[in-house]
Amino acid sequence: MLAKRIIPCLDIKDGRTVKGINFVDLRDAGDPVELAEIYSREGADELVFLDISATEQKRKTLADLVYRVAEKVNIPFTVGGGISSLEDVDVLLHNGADKVSINSSAIRNPQLINDLTAKFGSQCIVVAIDAKQIQGKWIVHLVGGKVPTELDLFDWAKEVAKRGAGEILFTSMDNDGTKDGFANKALSRLSEELNIPIIASGGAGSVQHFIDTFKEGKADAALAASVFHFKEIEINDLKENLKNSGIPIRI
Question: Do residues 90 and 116 lie in contact, with contact meaning Cβ atoms separated by under 8 Å?
Fold first, then answer.
């Protein structure tokens, strides 16, 4: 069985790391370059950098900040925010990103997934999906969770996989920042219906939540932000607990 992955997430706004609850009420969480270096040193398996206001502000991801983060880390590094073309991806990869994450642009132009995987390879392309439950259905949202679509989470995830994406980063907007645990029922269904890795995001508040999302949610990786940024959970301790719970993990 492949080792499960622990992935700290740097949500970037105006050059700073921020964290909110249910995608709003953002507060400062520190310098992204410093945090990236710490996580790389402490044993994170990967790092995700999301320029969360790039799409809303209709601008490109901060390539210079990506370059400065990449200089400090020696683990795989995924970058997202404002990516809408092959040229955007080219710039980010040349500035040190190992993978890119697309979200709103993939919904607006699904062919972009095909084009990116054809040029850069599936292993390089992560499709992020932000969804929340509305009248019992998981509805996909655009622009950092601000705009609902008519897309069903599971239908869209299947299309994303069919178009060649290498991974799906699923964030439950209902769970985001609540520290009440991941959306394990939805994650489990995604894992069962798809044959590409699923990254769980939204809701981490305790070590047990990570154990649950790997066992019950069948997630391949778990992403979290505030519990790492504010030192509520140490990555080394988390990994030891996961290992002791019988979950395959790199120590």
Answer: no
Domains of the chain, by residue range, sit at 5-244
CB contact burial 24-51 (16+ within 10 A = b; e otherwise)? eebeebeebbebbbbbbebbbbbbbbbb
- The catalytically annotated residue of 45, 51, 88, 130 is 130
DSSP 3-state assignment of 102?
strand
Kindly provide the b/e burial profile for residues 206-241, where b requires at least 16 CB atoms within 10 angstroms of the residue's own CB: bbebbbbbbeebbbbbbbbbbbbbeeebebeebbeb
Fold of 5-244: TIM Barrel (3.20.20)
d(CA 205, CA 202): 9
pLDDT, position 33: 86
User: Looking at this protein, which amino acid is placed at residue 230?
Assistant: F
Ranges of residues in the chain with a pLDDT under 50 are 19-27, 55-59
Q: Is 155 a catalytic residue?
A: no
Residue 197 has a pLDDT of 98
114 residue type, one letter: N
What pLDDT does 53 receive?
A: 63
Instruction: Name 1's Cβ contacts closer than 8 Å, sequence gap at least 6.
Output: 248
What was the pLDDT predicted at 20? 47
User: In this structure, what DSSP letter does residue 3 have?
Assistant: P
